[in-house]
Each structure stands twice: as C-alpha cells, then as structure tokens.
Amino acid sequence: MMSRKLRVSALFLSASVALLGAGCANGASGASGAYGSGVNGNGSARGAVILAKAGNLEKTTLNVAVLANIDSAGFFVALHEGLFAREGLRINYSPAFSDAIVEAQAKGQYDITGMNYVSYIQAQFSHRADLRIVAEGSLLEPGDQVIMTMPRSRIRSLRDLRGRLLGVNTTPNIGFLLVASMLAQDGIRMKTTAGYAADSVMLPPDPNFPFPASQPLMSGQVAAAIMSEPFATQLAEQNGAGIIADTDSGATSQFPILGYAVTKAWARVNPNTLKAFTIALEAGQEIADTNRAAVEAAFVSLKPGAGHVDQRTAALMALSNYPLGVDRARLQRVADVMVEFGLLRQHFSIGQLLN
C-alpha cells in the first residue's frame, strides 16, 4: 500500500492543486484560496493551495450531517479553512450521533452525510436508501478506536471482560463490528442477548445504548467501553481512564471507518454542486493528513456539542488516516467483514454504493 503521505487521487489531481510559497493569507481570504493559516507541525508557515472551481452550482446551501469525531477531520478542516466557501458553498453542519441520520437523508433532510460505512451498507442492503459514496473519510490508526476501563478497574485485558458488560451500541454499526472482530481473534465468546454468561463478554441488550459511552462507563453500568477520539482522550484526561485494547489490529488494521455519501437521486440532480463539495473536501483531507495543527485548530473552533474539544485534548488526541479518492477494494473489506460477523446475510458488492 502506498505511503499515506504520497497518496494522490485522480479527483485531487483534476482539481489542479498547486502548492505555493509560504506566508499566504488565511483560507477564507485571498484570490486563490489557501492551504490554511498559521504554522505547520514544524513551525513553518503553510503554503497556499489553488482549487479548481466547479461552477454552475445547482445548489449553494447544503445541509450536511457528519459524525462529530476525529474520523471527520477532513470535513472540519475544509470547513474551518473556508474551502467550501471558496467553492461557493454554504454548509449548514449538523453533528450526527446515530444511524437515524441515514434514514433522514433518504427522506431529503440532508444533502450529504459523513457516517460509518457499516450504516451505509446496511441501509443499501435493506433498501432503506439508495446511496452513493462520494469520498472516503478515514482509516483506522493506533489510538483511534480503543477499549477503555476506569482507573480503579481490575480489568487489564479483553479476557478479563468475560462475565462482564462491554459498552458498545449493538445495532449494526462500526463499533459493534470492531468489537466482534477483536473478541473473535482472541477466541473470546460474545453474548448480545439479555442474561448472564460467565464465559462470554456480554454486550448491552439495549439497542439505544449511547454513543459515546462515557457516562455508562463512569457510572459503572459497563465494565469497559469502546471509545473513539476525541472522546477517548477526554475520558483519559478528565477521569483517568486507561486503554486495554486497540481495535487497529488483526482483521481491522487500517480499517475503513467513515465515508461521505449522497443519495443517487440527489447526485443526478446536483452534479456540479457535488463536484464542488468533493473538491473542497479532498483538499481538507490532504491538509488533515499532513498538518496536525490544522486539525487541532478545526476541532477547537467547533461549538460545544458539535465536536468542540479544548486545546489540551486537541494536542493529545490520536488522529486517523485521511485517504484521498475512493478505493473499491479497500471498502469491500468492510462488507466482507460484516458478512463474517453476521451483520449481513450474504455477500454484498460495494460497487452498489459506488456507481
């Protein structure tokens, strides 16, 4: 696989991106757009980036719902740096905290969503929506999705969780898939139905188990919980929680987590608007993947309840891998692992979500 720093997609190339010299203006100003403001991780000024203009936009105001966590960093960077605005787009951003967002998108409430692939595949497989994935958002990196316990817990490994509750939403989503894979590779049984099982890790029978699971873990409702960033760092910093397992391993190493999708009907009606959105998003992805300072600034700038993190958390949180373009083989992994762990009854071709 190509180095994450050398990946360039056809879309990004067609956007005629050119890195210019240092000392350029903020992304919200200047005639050519910008590669952000301030300094990069080495303390030198960031250069500018020229974006192609899609033009002839069918819509200029978009309702966009994305997961308010580190997997959406490319989107938040593009928003913070003014890249969508440079494409003539006004983004009405809403944080997404449940799979209900996909249902709302199918009904026309959202133009574009950024969600985990498991939710998209389930919606397409069950004919609850007819979707098209237009960009990848994130791949797992160490520390991105981890299983945590509170500081006084005697649990030190996944095997110690047998006979105890592990906090994860059991509706078919990415958290459940990552947990199922981790337990299986360690030969540990998993119990999703109500009732005690001394030889198995038990999962909450409540399909509405909250995300993130910070409160259930702190209150002792569960013995451990899967946590994504920045929630994992917040829990560690504020409550002393520790990591007992990292999901970036085995079958889910560098696993595709989040992507961006539209309905196929929306894409047919709004081709130029979609092109403008993806040009800006891909630029945000590239910045997020190469410039940590830009990611930190983007999350600090968000409003409370919509992804905001304080400066200390931003400096400590683990980042994902932010790919460019859409890789069919990579995304097929998600559907194949879903079949393996019973989230799909039969083979699903990811091409159904790409064409």
Could you characterize what this model shows?
It is a single chain. The chain starts with 9 loop residues before the first helix and ends in a 15-residue tail after the last helix. By secondary structure, the protein is of the alpha/beta class. The protein has a five-stranded mixed β-sheet with strand order 2-1-3-11-4, with helices on both faces. Strands 6-9-5-10 form a four-stranded mixed β-sheet. It has a two-stranded parallel ribbon with strand order 7-8. The protein is globular. Helix content is 32%, strand content 17%. It has two domains: 56-141 and 254-353, 3-Layer(aba) Sandwich (D-Maltodextrin-Binding Protein, domain 2), CATH 3.40.190; 145-252, D-Maltodextrin-Binding Protein, domain 2 (3-Layer(aba) Sandwich). The longest helix is centred in the C-terminal third of the chain and has 20 residues, at 271-290. The protein contains 13 helices and eleven strands. Helix 2 (73-80) packs across helix 10 and helix 2 crosses helix 11.
